[in-house]
Write a structure and sequence with these properties.
296 residues, alpha/beta, 6 helices
């Protein structure tokens, strides 16, 4: 019987967390025992606090993700979101390991990390495909394109004024909002900022777009769940000044003029997240978000 081919695993990590540097040697020891070749990002190599005394390859360009069997994201939800944008449409599966206190996207914690890694190494896992949003912004004569696994947020930025925004879907007027802003989220992002603003929880294996107003100045405008073929257009009529803020997954920011046009739709690819057959989404909601618990 021929030997199993060497698995290629990438590591994407929050190098600002001391826990990352504590865990990295443990992962390298596990990899050497399991016929696994590790690939490190240039950020990890550039921020190393000690010599990395094992053999590895370098992830130098985004196309290098295609060489990997999966990517291990070590950090919090922000680490996973940034890794998802870096992978983009390259379809590399990702396993999140949470190093902090309240990660929601990462199902695996440090305590059960090697149990999960052993299962992945033995192909005992499931791929959950999560919807991604594509956002095209026409602003000040420039066109920009962004992709979000969680959400696109539009708010009043540093201004103290409410902003006026008009939402169209597939050419039909949906509503005019006078509010602090709008959150347009995926099902994955429905448990993030959208939830804090009163939006619904949407199962991550669904394809849908959630639009949640932020502190609307009316009693009638509520969050709405729209089908995944919706092509949304957001404009900003009757605003006296610009300075409107747009954020992608809470990590990429742009400032919009009053004549800016934001178009949001379902991306033509999905982010592949590794999960397991015995994983229960509602258990995760209960443990990390207090879902279904009565006050104590």
């Amino acid at each position: 019987m021929s030997a199993s081919p060497t698995k290629q695993i990438g590591i994407w990590g929050n190098t600002e967390k001391p826990a990352f540097w504590d865990i990295l040697p443990q992962i390298t020891g596990w990899a050497s025992k399991n016929n696994i070749r590790l690939h490190l990002t240039t950020r990890i190599i550039g921020n190393k606090t000690n010599d990395i005394d094992f053999d590895y390859d370098v992830i130098e360009t985004a196309d290098d993700f295609q060489k990997l069997d999966f990517l291990l994201a070590l950090g919090g939800d922000g680490t996973i979101l940034s890794a998802a944008r870096a992978i983009g449409a390259r379809e590399t599966p990702m396993l999140g390991i949470h190093l902090g206190t309240l990660g929601f996207l990462a199902e695996v914690t440090v305590l059960d990390m090697f149990t999960a890694l052993d299962r992945v190494a033995n192909d005992d896992f499931i791929i959950l495909e999560r919807m991604v949003l594509k956002c095209t912004v026409n602003n000040g004569g420039k066109t920009m394109e962004f992709y979000a696994l969680n959400d696109i947020t539009i708010d009043r930025g540093s201004s103290h004024r409410l902003i006026n925004s008009t939402l169209h879907s597939n050419g039909h007027r949906v509503a005019r909002y006078t509010a602090d802003g709008l959150i347009v989220s995926t099902p994955t992002g429905s448990t993030a900022y959208s939830l804090s603003a009163g939006g619904p929880i949407v199962m991550p294996n669904l394809d849908a777009i959630v639009v949640t107003p932020i502190s609307p100045h009316t009693l009638t405008l509520r969050p709405i769940v729209m089908p995944d073929d919706s092509r949304l257009e957001i404009t900003f009529p009757d605003n006296p000044t610009g300075g409107i803020a747009l954020a992608v997954d809470g990590q990429v920011q742009e400032t919009l003029d009053v004549d800016a046009v934001v178009n949001i739709s379902k991306a033509d690819y999905k982010t592949k997240m590794i999960t397991f057959s015995d994983s229960n989404y509602f258990d995760i909601l209960s443990k990390k978000m207090g879902w279904g618990r009565r006050g104590e």
